């Protein structure tokens, strides 16, 4: 395709903001200037465990001071607000998979120093149950993980961890109920495990972190099969349980 043809197509079918759906200028990517200014990128001090914003001089958030997590630590790109909610909903429920590459680039850019420190052998998306996968048609965590891996040159491990039990959304439960809801929900593919016998450090990828129950359950299963360290990357960090 010639540059002239590309210019014509960009005018006729412009890219659109992933938040407000307004047409973007050709040189813009992902979001318009107004919506970009409202993106709740977490800046400043973070909880050393879960990445939630904390005050200066504070090592752990109040949630992580109360709970012992299975995972090592993680990184979240945004705080969960209305703008972040629209982006996540666009990916999960409106089929806007084309937004993934832009969002993955943002996540990789901001978390690069963490990933370099972690030195993962592979990245694993938090799996969906096959029933939910049929309903939605895709796993947004897998799409995000694949896009991140392409940018980082790290292996994406999609066949090791799977979901065995259909569970209700975690948002309906308190912290104790969240843990019970996920008990036994994840398993290791024993056949695939043979191919990953040397994998010792992994990064789990999901869209939202709130209490950490999902990441903890996945980490526990992975550590039972020989993984030594489990970290996580998420788009959004929620505000407690």
Any descriptors?
241 residues; alpha/beta; four-stranded parallel beta sheet; two-stranded antiparallel sheet; 6 strands; disordered N terminus
What's the helical proportion of residues?
A: 25-40%
Q: What is the typical, i.e. mean, pLDDT?
A: 86
Query: Strand sequence of the main sheet, in spatial order?
Result: 1-6-5-2
The number of E-state strands comes to 6
Helix/strand order, N-terminal first: HHHEHHEHHEHEHEHE
Protein structure class: alpha/beta
For the report, how would you describe the main beta sheet? 4 strands, parallel
Beta-strand residue fraction: 5-15%
Cα Rg:
19 Å
Tally of separate helices = 10
Low-confidence parts, pLDDT < 50 over ≥5 residues? Answer: 1-6
Overall 3D geometry?
A: globular
How widely separated are the two ends?
51 Å
Describe the SSE topology.
Blueprint lengths: L2 H10 L20 H6 L23 H5 L6 E7 L2 H11 L7 H19 L3 E4 L4 H7 L3 H13 L8 E3 L11 H8 L3 E3 L1 H4 L7 E9 L3 H12 L4 E9 L4
Parallel strand pairs: 1-6, 2-5, 5-6
Antiparallel strand pairs: 3-4
Helix pairs in contact: 5-7
